[in-house]
Design goal:
The longest helix is centred in the middle third of the chain and has 25 residues. The protein is mainly alpha-helical. The chain has a two-stranded antiparallel ribbon. α2 packs antiparallel against α9. It has one domain. 76% of the residues lie in helices and 1% in strands.
């Protein structure tokens, strides 16, 4: 009950902020931070809980974005319908990836997920309807619900999506699915010998992760008012989606949340105060620090501190 109260208060607080007279850039940057929360949380369901490192994040983000674009172009669908479409297509892609690649393990699985990114990018680049390699310029709808601007509405919607993503990860962790995925991560052979339905659980994790990654990508065309394959399928998404859970801690649902808020906020501050080109440097330095000094992330450090203080 306490968790859901925090979620409700967070949503109400973000809604009040979006309705306030705060600077517009705050919502433009806040959208990116909240999107990072969804990306990190989604990646961790498969990469953290099950131990299957997915480098194909840009493929799922791109599928979500271009599914939303298709619904917009074909049916002039509203934003929530676009997001739902992105979630469905992301889940279907996740299930398909699971069927064809989850029997692979370790580096072979990771390489296969990278290949999916290039395949999807090539498909989009050769599609006239989706704008091809040059992309498509979009005009935002006039209405923004009760909000002053479309950016503020996107900020509020992404807040809701972040809460849903974190809640889904929390449920998975505390359910039999999470226990089974943990067994898969520790030793898949031992889990199978104990009767754990490993393939079924991995398919579920891949589908949920894919759906949330699709959700993260779906609002992007309207957020940028432009979409093109090179930036949409950028492998930068794979790097940050992996980095944030590692920094926060992959063993608990709160780890990706902490890592995303920390890293994405630092990146936005660096972009404004110094240079956007330093974003990758910031990610690399933090990754080195945590991989070497705190492999269990911030959550692991807190657990060690609590244990030593007793």
């Amino acid at each position: 009950m306490k968790y859901w109260l925090i979620c409700l208060l967070t949503l109400m607080g973000m809604g009040a902020l979006a309705l306030s007279g705060a600077n517009e850039y705050l919502f433009f940057a806040g959208f990116v931070v909240l999107q990072s929360v969804v990306l990190a949380t989604a990646w961790n369901i498969l990469g953290g809980y099950a131990g299957y490192v997915n480098f194909g994040v840009p493929g799922f983000v791109g599928v979500g974005a271009y599914s939303a674009l298709s619904l917009r172009l074909l049916f002039d669908a509203p934003l929530l319908v676009q997001i739902a479409g992105g979630a469905v297509m992301g889940a279907l892609l996740g299930f398909a990836v699971g069927v064809f690649t989850l029997r692979l393990r370790g580096i072979f699985f990771s390489i296969a997920t990278v290949a999916i990114v290039f395949i999807l990018e090539a498909v989009v680049m050769n599609s006239r309807f989706l704008g091809g390699a040059t992309g498509i310029q979009l005009t935002r709808p006039g209405g923004a619900w009760i909000f002053e601007s479309y950016t503020r509405m996107l900020f509020f919607v992404m807040t809701l999506m972040a809460i849903i993503a974190v809640s889904a990860a929390r449920y998975v962790q505390n359910s039999h699915i999470g226990q089974g995925l943990k067994a898969v991560r520790d030793s898949e052979e031992a889990a199978e010998c104990c009767g754990v339905p490993t393939l079924k659980l991995k398919l579920i994790a891949c589908s949920i992760s894919g759906a949330l990654l699709g959700v993260a990508g779906a609002p992007m065309p309207m957020y940028l008012s432009y979409i093109e394959p090179a930036s949409t399928f950028n492998l930068h998404y794979a790097v940050i989606a992996l980095a944030m859970p590692i920094i926060g801690g992959t063993s608990h649902w709160v780890g990706p949340l902490i890592g995303a808020l920390l890293l994405a906020s630092i990146q936005q501050i660096v972009t404004v105060t110094i240079s956007s080109e330093l974003n990758v440097l910031v990610v690399g330095m933090l990754l080195i620090v945590f991989v070497v000094g705190a492999p269990d992330g911030i959550v692991g450090l807190v657990k060690k501190w609590k244990t030593s203080s007793k």
